């Protein structure tokens, strides 16, 4: 029997089991917070926490329920986002291998919070001649599931702790920051900023960059979804406002095939 939905869509439905209660409660939550202009009277930071009547974040909720976390991770991998396009949107073979030329043994690219390594593996396949190490970082329970890493080194790491790899040419984050508020994003980024080498390292962010006016429908819908768990999609102005306090400046937004990669470096 054929699968009318496809594996990815079926996992996506399962992933939404975690968010349907928050979606239903969102109008009520927005009324309680005057549409985000005042705190919730009972101290719930976001609609998801309000919907489950608990202070645990969305990801704490998933971590305490391994079956739901496993389904969530499968959905993130099965739904074709723009990972393949993000691999092509940035010229890793040029930008990360020159000035000075890269060499064997140095860390070329660190994919922070990269799941099972599909993105960083894709970079290695797309640019097979890269000199330098590709590293995948995620929580230990995620990294332990990687049985046969192809072209990259897995490393257990929590991005709420200091980045152990110092002076890599690039630190890449894919769909990490839209899950969190600016305040939390700065906590995550500060751990990487302290590991960067001025004039050498950069941060690459594979996420949407919304126009200030009349954004497309799909990113707007995603913005509403992210609102449920306290995150958001961002315009370039909002990205700048989030990055500048950390001493980072956007040097370019690379685009290809619907994918966008923000390149940020330490301000000189």
UniProtKB/TrEMBL annotation:
SUPFAM superfamilies: S-adenosyl-L-methionine-dependent methyltransferases
Presence of the UniProt keyword Mitochondrion in the record: no
GO molecular function, one term: O-methyltransferase activity
Domain O-methyltransferase C-terminal: from-to ranges: 108-247
Protein origin, superkingdom: Eukaryota
PROSITE patterns, per database record: SAM_OMT_II
Keywords, in A-Z order: Methyltransferase, S-adenosyl-L-methionine, Transferase
Pfam families (alphabetical): Methyltransf_2
One GO biological process term: methylation
UniProt name for this protein: O-methyltransferase C-terminal domain-containing protein
Species the sequence originates in: Glutinoglossum americanum
């Amino acid at each position: 029997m054929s699968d009318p939905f496809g594996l990815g869509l079926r996992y996506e439905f399962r992933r939404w089991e975690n968010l349907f209660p928050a979606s239903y409660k969102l109008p009520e939550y927005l009324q309680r917070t005057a549409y985000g202009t005042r705190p919730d009277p009972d101290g719930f930071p976001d609609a998801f926490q309000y919907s489950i009547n608990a202070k645990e974040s969305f990801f704490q909720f998933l971590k305490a329920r391994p079956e739901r976390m496993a389904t969530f991770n499968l959905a993130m991998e099965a739904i074709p986002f723009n990972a393949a396009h993000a691999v092509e949107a940035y010229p890793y073979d040029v930008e990360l291998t020159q000035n000075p030329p890269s060499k064997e043994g140095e860390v070329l690219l660190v994919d922070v919070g990269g799941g099972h390594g599909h993105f960083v593996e894709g970079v290695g396949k797309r640019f097979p001649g890269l000199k330098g190490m590709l590293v995948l970082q995620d929580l230990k329970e995620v990294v332990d599931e990687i049985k046969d890493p192809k072209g990259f080194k897995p490393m257990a790491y929590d991005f709420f702790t200091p980045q152990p790899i110092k002076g890599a040419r690039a630190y890449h984050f894919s769909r990490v920051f839209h899950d969190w508020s600016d305040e939390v994003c700065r906590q995550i980024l500060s751990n990487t900023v302290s590991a960067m080498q001025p004039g050498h390292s950069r941060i690459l962010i594979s996420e949407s960059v919304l126009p200030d006016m009349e954004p497309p429908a799909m990113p707007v819908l995603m913005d509403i979804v992210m609102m449920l768990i306290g995150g958001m999609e961002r315009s370039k102005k909002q990205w700048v406002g989030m990055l500048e306090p950390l001493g980072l400046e956007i040097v370019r937004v690379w685009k290809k095939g619907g994918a966008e990669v923000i390149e940020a470096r330490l301000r000189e």
